[in-house]
Amino acid sequence: MYIIEILKDKCNKCRECLKNCPVEAI
Predict the structure, then answer these.
(1) Which domain holds residue 5?
(2) Are 8 and 26 in contact (CB under 8 A)?
(3) How many whole angstroms separate alpha carbon 11 and alpha carbon 2?
(4) Residue 1, pLDDT above cutoff 60
(5) Residue 5 near residue 26, CB atoms below 8 Å
(6) What are phi and psi of 13, to 5 degrees?
(7) What is the C-alpha separation between 11 and 20, in angstroms, rounded?
(8) pLDDT value of residue 25
(9) Above 60 in pLDDT, residue 15?
(10) Is the distance from CB of 11 to CB of 4 less than 8 angstroms?
(11) Is 10 exposed, middle or buried (0-12, 13-18, 19+ CB in 10 A)?
(12) Is residue 10 very low, low, confident or very high in pLDDT (cuts 50, 70, 90)?
């Protein structure tokens, strides 16, 4: 689940709303 880690890094400002962070943005 390294993708989750990347999401956290990209959306560290919005950790609680990771669902709001588009996975395609990676």
Answers:
(1) 1-26
(2) no
(3) 14
(4) no
(5) no
(6) -75, -20
(7) 9
(8) 45
(9) no
(10) no
(11) middle
(12) low
First to last CA, the chain: 14
> Could you give the C-alpha distances from 10 to 1, 2, 23, in angstroms and in order?
15, 12, 10
Reading the block at residue 10, the tokens are: 């990209």
Whole-model pTM?
0.22
Tokens standing for residue 23:
């996975």
Residue 4: count other Cβ atoms within 10 Å of its Cβ: 10
Tokens standing for 3? 């993708």
Are the C-beta atoms of residues 11 and 21 closer than 8 Å to each other?
yes
Domain count, the chain: 1
